[in-house]
């Protein structure tokens, strides 16, 4: 059981690699999330965990005066596996996403927003959420191709922002599955991501010595 | 504008009554939520707000040693419009729901749970969530007809409990809509609920004087 050919550390690493391969093969970049000045550390951490767990690789942030500081106790390490892209302004963020072929849809509580089920799931989608109190800024709303809302029928007209993001991303991923869409990274992107994740998963002493397993 | 026939307080009350009528007509009792020893006040408040906003009228709670104490700052008043039923044990809660014709499904992170989309939406459903750390107790799991999970494909294998409940209830309500199912209260139940809600919506001085107009 403990011979050289079954070194427990190597067995563990092999298992981790299998898990990484599985996650990377299902990773999605064609659906992304944008947070504009969401600032509560608890909410940010819950959002990172939801986005990572649902399979997103990218998260875009327009930082407000309070910055982007997820509560480490709540992320449960999810922040290690997702790429956070920081932008200085709504215009810079929207411009970059549009240049990459994304259509932008903003979360809206009222008005003529389409329901979540009606988002065009086959296209590259960036779903944008505004600040806990002020909602989406007019600046960012002006860059959006359209708006969506979560169907509600009670007196409460909004959700906690981390709940709203969770419902939205879970529904958008379900919409993708309905169309038969799974992981969407190219072979090259997957290979690069696997190497990064292998390095992250290797015991930290090996990482310090530069080993990438 | 301010004549006796257009008393602003009466106009406001009339508007509130219209809103109440709309909410009551869409209220749902055939889908309910059970929380077993969920204790974080922030999570509880976010859950109450989600459940109420999505249209549920009933919430069942099996209290743990820390009780059921939603954070008032986060509920935003949602607790006023939803009925919280407290039970002393898993057996008592499950027994009462089963006697009323509910099928019980527990949230599960692993194993052979069915996906959310496969829950039998046409039946009376009670969806059960366990404690933040320990999950569903074996006692309650033993009373369940089956288990469900939210499809995930990342390293994070769970959501914050308020996010998990939000995704679950939003999906279950969407499943109902797909079948053409809306509000399900009988005429008598709706009339009784309207009267309760009118009283709650009336200015508090009138309530103190016993008026329910």
Largest interface pair? A-B, 42 and 42 residues
- Based on the structure given, which CATH architecture of the largest domain in chain A is correct? 3-Layer(aba) Sandwich
SS-based class of chain A: alpha/beta
Tally of strands of chain A? 7
CATH superfamily of the largest domain in chain A: SPOUT methyltransferase, trefoil knot domain
N-to-C SSE string of chain A, H for helix and E for strand: HEHEHEHEEEHEHHH
Tally of domains of chain A = 2
Total count of helical runs of at least 4 residues of chain A:
8
Q: Based on the structure, what is the oligomeric state of the protein chains? A: homodimer
Quick tags:
2 domains, 41% helix, disordered C terminus, Alpha/beta knot, 213 residues, 7 strands, homodimer, alpha/beta, seven-stranded parallel β-sheet
Give a structural overview:
- The structure is a homodimer of 213-residue chains.
- The first copy, chain A, is built from 8 helices and 7 strands.
- Chain A is of the alpha/beta class and 213 residues long.
- Chain A has a 7-stranded parallel β-sheet with strand order 3-2-1-6-4-7-5, sandwiched between helices.
- In chain A, strand 1, helix 2 and strand 2 (58-62) form a beta-alpha-beta unit.
- The two termini of chain A are 22 Å apart.
- The A-B interface holds A 19, 23, 26-27, 42, 46, 49-50, 52-56, 74, 76-78, 81, 117, 150-160, 162-167, 170-171, 173-174, 177, 183 and B 19, 23, 26-27, 42, 46, 49-50, 52-56, 74, 76-78, 81, 117, 150-160, 162-167, 170-171, 173-174, 177, 183.
């Amino acid at each position: 059981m403990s011979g050289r050919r079954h070194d427990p550390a190597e067995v563990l690493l092999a298992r981790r690699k299998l898990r990484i391969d599985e996650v990377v093969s299902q990773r999605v970049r064609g659906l992304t999330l944008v947070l504009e000045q969401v600032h509560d550390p608890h909410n940010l951490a819950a959002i990172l965990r939801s986005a990572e767990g649902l399979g997103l690789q990218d998260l875009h942030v327009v930082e407000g005066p309070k910055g982007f500081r997820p509560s480490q106790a709540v992320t449960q390490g999810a922040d290690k596996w997702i790429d956070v892209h920081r932008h200085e302004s709504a215009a810079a963020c929207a411009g970059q996403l549009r240049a990459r072929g994304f259509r932008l849809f903003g979360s809206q509580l009222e008005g003529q927003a389409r329901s979540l089920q009606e988002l065009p799931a086959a296209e590259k989608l960036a779903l944008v959420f505004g600040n806990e109190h002020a909602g989406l800024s007019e600046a960012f709303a002006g860059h959006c191709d359209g708006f969506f809302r979560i169907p509600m029928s009670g007196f409460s007209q909004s959700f906690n922002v981390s709940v709203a993001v969770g419902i939205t991303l879970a529904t958008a991923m379900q919409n993708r599955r309905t169309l038969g869409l799974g992981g969407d990274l190219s072979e090259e992107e997957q290979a690069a991501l696997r190497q990064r994740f292998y390095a992250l998963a290797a015991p930290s002493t090996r990482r310090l010595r530069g080993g990438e397993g």
